[in-house]
Specification:
It is a single chain. Helix content is 44%, strand content 18%. The protein is globular and about 60 Å long. It has eleven helices and eight strands. The chain has two domains: 63 residues, no CATH class; 192 residues, Rossmann fold (3-Layer(aba) Sandwich), CATH 3.40.50.1820. By secondary structure, the chain is of the alpha/beta class. Helix 1 packs across helix 2, helix 5 crosses helix 6 and helix 6 packs across helix 9. Strand 1 and strand 2 form a beta hairpin. It has an eight-stranded mixed β-sheet with strand order 1-2-4-3-5-6-7-8, with helices on both faces. It starts with a helix and ends with a helix.
Length: 274
């Protein structure tokens, strides 16, 4: 896909700056990296939200609630919003669950400008204490990494569903730095800024190791044609983990996977099994 001219010019200017002023270019890149883009909700998302009960949770997180029964938390990915998982709502309510969709910090209708893995996870822990025990968390993309980190920190949920989740956080840093054409020194400053703001080093958030330590039953779903998070990462990071049920889909990509009836039915079946 051809990039817009403005972005191409920006990248070239930043690339040159990264060699002359590596710390400056690294800081600019880090702030951009940590600032989510708030996209407009699709009409079908708004219709689903209109049927839910809006609440502002104590952690200043906007939420929507449907149904009654054991609680299921829907967690979106980076640049996302809870309503992206909206097609899960009706099937889950019909199956007897209380469904809660949230907009994470600095996303959707929740306040904030920048956020990171640790802050998002801390918000999840705070709202879980408010909501009580969760039957499950269904998380998409970056929300999956957040959920795993929160679970390792004591998130009280019985089951976890990871959809298109990232498993190699260093690869995300590397891909961003490569896309922005940062010099090696600037890349170092970029990652160092992000790790300091998040108070978390990538080497301390190896997803395979975190998943291995948490007790919850996990279903991981990934599409082999995912262009944003390579399926290879899912295969490698769930290898030899007996409490992880990995499902590989084909032709759904990174976003359409959230609209697949087969995926939704598989998730509900997983939630209902012992």
């Amino acid at each position: 896909m051809k990039l817009p001219l403005s972005l191409r010019i920006y990248r070239r200017a930043l690339a040159l700056t990264s060699y002359v002023l590596p710390a400056y270019a690294g800081t600019i890149s880090a702030k951009r990296f940590l600032t989510p883009i708030r996209h407009q909700r699709a009409k079908w998302e708004k219709k689903i939200l209109a049927k839910g009960e809006e609440k502002i949770l104590s952690a200043q997180i906007k939420s929507w609630h449907w149904g009654s029964g054991p609680s299921i938390l829907l967690v979106h990915g980076w640049d996302g919003r809870g309503s992206q998982l909206g097609l899960f709502v009706a099937p889950l309510v019909d199956a007897g669950y209380h469904v809660i969709a949230i907009d994470g910090p600095a996303h959707g209708d929740s306040p904030g400008e920048r956020t990171n893995l640790r802050e998002f996870a801390q918000k999840m822990l705070a709202i879980q204490h408010e909501l009580g025990e969760l039957h499950a968390v269904i998380a998409h993309s970056f929300g999956g990494a957040v959920t795993i980190f929160a679970a390792e920190q004591g998130l009280n949920t019985k089951k976890i569903v990871l959809i298109s989740s990232p498993y190699d956080l260093q690869a995300i840093f590397d891909r961003f730095a490569s896309f922005m054409l940062l010099s090696p020194r600037s890349k170092h400053h970029f990652q160092n800024f992000v790790e300091k703001e998040a108070q978390l080093k990538v080497k301390d958030a190896i997803m395979h190791d975190l998943i291995a330590r948490i007790p919850q039953s996990i279903m991981a779903i990934h599409d082999q044609n995912d262009q944003e998070i390579p399926c290879h990462d899912a295969l490698e990071s769930t290898k030899n983990l007996s409490h992880v049920n990995l499902i590989i889909t084909k032709g759904l990509g990174h976003q359409r996977i959230l609209k697949s009836a087969r995926v939704i039915n598989s998730v509900i079946h997983f939630l209902e099994t012992q």
